[in-house]
Amino acid sequence: MANTPVVTVGAPDDRGLRKVLIDGIFAGKVWSDKELRRVLSREGVPDGHPVLWLGEDGTIWPDRAGLRRATGLFMVLGLLATAYPLFKIGYADSGDALTYGGRIAGCTIVAVALVELGTAGAAVDYWGKRRWCYSGVAVLVGVLIALFCSVSLLLLQIGEHFNRYTTIGIALCVWSLAALSELHACRAWMGLSIPRSIAIGVIVSTLLAASNLAYSQVYVPYMTTPLVQSGAEFREANLARSGAPMYVTVHLYVKNAGQVPVYVLGSIYWIHGAPASPPDTKPTAYDLIYDGEFVTPVGRVLNPGEEVAQDAVVEITDPENAKRRPYEALRAQTEVYVIRKDRMTMSSGYARSRVGAETIKKDAEEGTPIGAKYRYRSQIENSSEILNATRGPQRVTVWRVAGGAWPRINVDVSPPGERIEFDPNEPFSNEDAIKRYGLSQVRGIMAQTPYQELLEKARSTVKASSPPK
Length: 469
What we know:
It is built from ten helices and 18 strands.
């Protein structure tokens, strides 16, 4: 009788668990009579051994296993569902974000996703035997992270198009509120010990370092504006013989004089014959001699300090006919549309996406400008995956449009299926494209030269080339 173990089963706690003691030594906690027999068998106690019941007898097992497991599964699935998009977004940004700050943010989001995975494991323990005293606090932290992320995702999508991430944000927000209600009923924060002292110096130092990093690597690059310069310059003029066409060489250039790399979406230059120019002269009074592109290929990157230049040779027929060419001057001007490279990326196929007027007419897209000669189009990616998630698909379209004496370029950055034309004269109508991507029009410095002086220089080449008598 001295070797007969004394088995004691305690009263059920608030979750239905009953503590098992063998000879006063803790042997485990059990939910049911089946688990009790398993514990006793493991400890070498034979079946049918007498048990001392405290509080309630062996017929009372208040645990509702189905509800408990369903609640735990609900929590685990919600935490895993939060971790998946966080890991997907963070992993993409940690290696592919266009800015240093974006990559730091991506690494941070990956760390948060790993925390969510850990809290999913804590949920298994919390709705199990609770072997870890802080499992409830860990689950509470995971649910709060899910609520913060879902609310942030929905706030970022205010004014944007409904997409799959909108559905994810709504679902996670509803789940996190339901989970918080369950955790409040379970008093999950119990067992959290508040430290008596806090390392103020460490917190202050961390905040100062984080503020300095955010200012130098995020704020300053974001607020730096591009500085792109463009212009034209008349060079030599040649005339083969009297009555022949005159050929004028015009130097065209665009230079990135700032610190921000840009994409050149499109370029155009005009060569006009200018009449007498009193203050009331209208642009329609100018005679268009030639127009064209001067930055090729389109979509090329213009890095800080880089310059693209081209000499265009313009043919002026019958230059000495005063009735046909009643010019006082020749005018040359450039225009370039650029977009910031540090806020978006374009596909490599943009330069090959050109379609002509026939294809444009066949497509018959709503909002196509009248007189469109050709079009370039490309899908664009934002500077980070989180912006791709909130803004949805975006694309840039550049049109070359005939316009009498002033052909032009039309640009729009908008979701597929829509057209929001960029108008430099109405910045508020294109506020999104300007703020998000730094889309801007660069009107070059106008070059002007007296027409008669240019003609005299061309005639002098005829005299210099004619043989002496």
